[in-house]
Amino acid sequence: MGITKTQIFNAKQNQLATTFKVLAHPARIAILEYISLQNACICNDIVEEIGLAQPTISQHLKELKSIDLIKGEIEGKKVCYCINLERWKEIQALLNTFFDTTKINCC
Amino acid sequence: MGITKTQIFNAKQNQLATTFKVLAHPARIAILEYISLQNACICNDIVEEIGLAQPTISQHLKELKSIDLIKGEIEGKKVCYCINLERWKEIQALLNTFFDTTKINCC
DNA sequence: ATTTATTATCGTAATATTGCAATATAATAA
DNA sequence: TTATTATATTGCAATATTACGATAATAAAT
């Protein structure tokens, strides 16, 4: 079906899954790495750097923005994308909580 | 197209994305949480617990196994699934390395 | 041997994702 | 105003994912 039955899971499970899903594409990983490499704000050097078409990059940026992982500041006709460091740490903590609380073994 | 251009990304980026993708479904989060809650090995109580059809759960378990996050031990006609703790920690470390090295801000 | 129980696999329908060309939007430059 | 440049949105084709019924495979129980 392609449709996830989110109703049968709790909010935390869905939130975790959504967060993981945003990170589940190499282009989005590459974009985040590239943004963080630049000491200054970058814009659509991303398109040239990554090697995907501009609309595709724009779409990936939108998904990263959807969980506030990055923020875009308009500078004239360019847009400067930066990692939202506060949210970044928040998400890292969220994932670590999941990994720390979900690991009791049995066998 | 639905097809990811993995060739244009490096191995680490693809590995990270694949790892995130396995975790990017609430059913798989729920399965991991449920397995970890049981002090003893569990089997297909998972099907009853989660509320998805047996083939669906089986498919999700296969995906979790694909990155060695869980291991299944055959016990007669039942199969006991456990978290692969060693791999679990490995993946947590992998994700933390990503989060720690990718966070320099610019704006 | 036959049944029963547990799990895996196959096939398939419905929906989602990826990627891009075409186009729209917005801001500066000429 | 009319380009030009940078980014976003739309529409669509190709592929992937999710979910499940049907069925196969395996092992214990009768």
Oligomeric composition of the shown chains:
homodimer
Percent range of helical residues of chain A: 55-70%
CATH homology superfamily of chain A: Winged helix-like DNA-binding domain superfamily/Winged helix DNA-binding domain
Give the structural class of chain A: mainly alpha
Overall number of structural domains of chain A: 1
Q: Uncertain spans of chain A, ≥5 residues at pLDDT below 50?
A: none
Radius of gyration of chain A: 16 Å
By CATH reckoning, the class of chain A would read Mainly Alpha
Summarize the structure.
Chain A has 107 residues and is mostly helical.
Q: What are its keywords?
A:
homodimer, two-stranded antiparallel sheet, about 10% strand, globular, DNA-binding
Give the SSE layout.
Two copies of one chain form a homodimer.
Chain A: H1 11-22, H2 26-37, H3 45-50, H4 54-66, E1 70-75, E2 78-83, H5 85-101
Chain A binds a DNA duplex (30 and 30 nucleotides) through helix 4.
Question: What does this 3D model show about the protein?
Answer:
Two copies of one chain form a homodimer. The first copy, chain A, has a single domain (6-98), classed as Winged helix-like DNA-binding domain superfamily/Winged helix DNA-binding domain (Arc Repressor Mutant, subunit A, Orthogonal Bundle). The first copy, chain A, is 56% helix and 11% strand. Chain A contains five helices and two strands. The relative contact order of chain A is 0.13. The mean pLDDT of chain A is 92. At the A-B interface, α1, α2, β2 and α5 of A face α1, α2, β2 and α5 of B. The structure holds a DNA duplex (30 and 30 nucleotides).
